[in-house]
Design a protein that fits this description.
The complex is a heterodimer of chains A (about 325) and B (about 190). Chain A has about 325 residues and is an alpha/beta fold. Chain A contains nine helices and nine strands. Chain B is about 25% helix and about 30% strand.
């Protein structure tokens, strides 16, 4: 059986041997990178520099919250707003694999810049098993290139350190609980962020739409969980589809976008079934999304696909 | 401690097989399917799992050195998905593209009691992900389970402790997956 306490002990010891010098951790503020940062911090202290990149594809207020978290953890951190660069790089990009690869490379270039300036040799990433499994290679097919594995550019100067490579999310959460980290129950959020929740071009205008929709979905489901109406799903969010449909708004024709609501149950993200959300909650989400985003969205659908055949995110 | 290795054929869930074994306190390791049989027996293992994989290996390709394992092994072997198809193919059965491939949640129906299914109800939920399947059983095998679209969901060699499963017992969503692993581990111990 996996034992968090033992894993922490062994990993800190190994990290002390593996890293000799300054390291940079790619810090998204999710469960994996936060646990990873906490472990490396215990091993090398202030020689660790946490870098959070605001890609422009983060959720509502998320980057600010991450900044607060880094402060609370007493990490030596850098905050980089690279949203303009990311938006430019993804202009006219429609293919999901291209998106992921561009984002992966952008991240590395940002980290390299910081590393060069501060004479950092190592790049620490919170990569976990599903990231490298789904990224494929050799015998294994590529399901999707995770930005931190399959999205890494071939020419990279930093030495990679990935202490969580053999773990799944439930095991990482166990470590987070053991370390008393406040993010232990936070839902997973993909590295490429909202860019993979917009099918088609991830333009700044469309990011605003999906960001608000994701915010509503999270808020309504969190409320229902708090009231005890349902249990917290594994992952729950909105996807903006490249499809338009006809609606009616105040006796007038409307022609707008479609939001897909996605919510799944899982232990390790390797298999999932869709959440059986009560209809009252679906109702609330549908009404609030279409009324709030009235200029843009006039239809909400619910994704009832398991994994396999689907994956959690649409891209 | 019982020692069971996982032979990697490039499956999405190869590492899950490793994890399930580790969670059940088995000494385990993922090995390349190109490992020679001589190197494998040096490890003194009690059993072997052949993982699934993306290549349509059940059909024609030679899969690493798995032929050697199936020919020589005197320990139990469990083939999963493509590993199961390859096992059937090796012993003279036929694996072909499925008329109706299965992905995700499927009902498994056990048609013949066996130690590998000890404690598993006649009908249970399993998770699938396959494009091909065993359409003709090798003559020295018996069929143990089926589903609505796939007649051979599980098979066993008549004389050896060689098992093939089309579904995936290693994933969390397969209802009795862990129990099937425990049963296989028990067979490896004996």
């Amino acid at each position: 059986m996996f034992k968090a306490k033992k894993f922490i002990e062994i990993t800190i010891n190994n990290l002390k041997k593996e890293i000799s010098g300054k390291s940079l951790i790619a810090f998204s503020g999710g469960v994996d990178s936060t646990v990873c940062a906490a472990l490396v911090y215990k091993a090398i202290g202030k020689n660790l520099v946490a870098v959070h990149v605001d890609t422009g594809y983060m959720r509502k207020n998320e980057s600010n919250e991450v900044k607060e978290l880094m402060k609370k953890m007493k990490l030596n951190f850098r905050f980089v707003d690279a949203s303009k660069e990311f938006y430019n790089a993804l202009k006219d990009v429609y293919d999901p694999e291209k998106k992921r690869k561009i984002i992966g490379e952008k991240f590395i270039r940002v980290f390299e810049k910081v590393a060069k300036k501060e004479k950092i040799e190592y790049l620490v990433q919170g990569t976990i098993a599903p990231d490298w499994i789904e990224s494929g290679g050799e015998l294994r097919d590529t399901i999707k290139s995770h930005h931190n594995v399959g999205g890494l550019p071939k020419s990279m100067k930093l030495k990679l350190v990935e202490p969580l490579r053999d773990l799944y999310k439930d095991e990482v959460r166990n470590i987070a609980r053991e370390l008393k980290l406040e993010i232990s129950e936070k839902q997973p959020f993909p590295g490429p962020g909202l860019a993979v929740r917009i099918i088609g071009e991830a333009s700044p205008e469309r990011v605003d739409v999906v960001r608000e929709a994701c915010f509503i979905v999270e808020e309504e489901i969190n409320k229902a969980v708090k009231k005890g109406i349902m249990k917290q799903p594994w992952q729950y969010f909105a996807v903006l589809l490249p499809v338009k449909s006809v609606g009616v708004h105040g006796d007038q024709r409307a022609y707008g976008d479609v939001i897909a609501l996605r919510s799944v149950e899982s232990i390790d993200a390797m298999t999932c079934d869709y959440s059986k959300i009560p209809h009252d909650i679906l109702d609330k989400i549908s009404t609030r999304v279409t009324n709030t985003l009235k200029e843009k969205v006039n239809r909400v659908i619910y994704d009832i696909t398991n994994k396999p055949p689907g994956t959690v995110e649409w891209e | 401690m019982v020692k069971i290795f996982v032979v990697d054929n490039g499956g999405q869930w190869t590492h899950r097989e490793w994890r399930t074994l580790r969670d059940l306190d088995v000494e385990t390791k993922i090995i390349a399917n190109t490992t020679s049989y001589t190197d494998l027996v040096k490890e003194d293992i009690n059993g072997l799992i052949l993982s699934g994989g993306a290549p349509r290996i059940g059909l024609k390709t030679i899969l690493g050195n798995i032929d050697q394992y199936l020919e020589k092994a005197n320990f139990p072997i469990l083939g999963i998905c493509a590993g199961h198809q390859y096992m059937a193919h090796f012993f003279g059965g036929i694996a072909k593209p499925s008329k109706k491939p299965e992905y995700g949640k499927i009902e498994l129906i056990i048609t013949k009691d066996n130690d590998i299914f000890k404690g598993v109800p006649k009908k249970s939920i399993v998770w699938e992900s396959h494009n091909d399947e065993v359409t003709k059983l090798p003559h020295n095998f018996i069929c143990l389970a089926k589903s609505e679209s796939c007649k051979i969901q599980a098979m066993k060699h008549k004389n050896k402790l060689f098992y093939g499963l089309q579904f995936h017992p290693e994933v969390e969503h397969t209802e009795y997956g862990k129990l099937i692993f425990k049963n296989f581990i028990q067979l490896c111990k004996e």
